[in-house]
């Protein structure tokens, strides 16, 4: 039978510390301080009672609504759960506690030089939003949860973007953000951290690549403009052909079009315009005479 306390295996499940069921140590032995530990606790209680008016300020602590306190009594987490919000009681000689902030925290990922899948070097930065959902795990399983999450976010950014092409990096930022969020959330789950959101802020390309992409985009726009102009010319020629067929079927329509054109010219500029009369009109007058 194992007798050392170092053989006790603890697991994090649903935000609480539990014991591995495969371990040989009995559950009733957990949390026991031993005879010497209880003696120290008893002495601390007697000291508090003896100096009651003065030690009351040392024993009562307050945590805010967005905070929790993880209390350690002789190195062991008290009651396997965090205290708060509000008032809680600690013994001045045997207890110490750590405050944990449960609010959402954001931090910037510094610009990272990344080599994409198609061998293009880009500089990418981002922002991560996370919060602590299990105070016990964030204190017992990792030494510095915030710093560890920051370092992990940098390495995750490199690993995820290293599997993407430049076109995917520029067009599928939302998918990349979701991939990073899933990877970070899975890695930080044992630390009691929930990654709520990851965003890619800026992608900086090399200057030569920017010029090449600008030239490619300009050439593409010019080609599209030429295609649109050619389609317009073709549609206009078809319309003119149909109009000529209509006018050829009715000679009077040509005369009306002629008079309409003269009317438009006279409306634009107030000047004297000399124009020849159509021969057909003059023939009608000559036949009457």
Automatic annotation (TrEMBL):
Primary location: membrane
Entry GO CC: plasma membrane
Domain of life: Eukaryota
InterPro entries documented for this protein: Band-7_stomatin-like (IPR043202), Band_7 (IPR001107), Band_7/SPFH_dom_sf (IPR036013), Band_7/stomatin-like_CS (IPR018080), Stomatin_HflK_fam (IPR001972)
Compartments where located: Membrane
Statement: the UniProt record of this protein carries the keyword Nucleus: no
Transmembrane segments: 36-63
Domain spans labelled Band: 58-217
Record keyword Transmembrane helix present: yes
UniProt KW keywords: Membrane, Transmembrane, Transmembrane helix
Similarity comment: family membership: Belongs to the band 7/mec-2 family.
PANTHER family, per the entry: BAND 7 PROTEIN-RELATED, STOMATIN (EPB72)-LIKE 3A
Name by which UniProt lists this protein: Band 7 domain-containing protein
Organism: Anabas testudineus
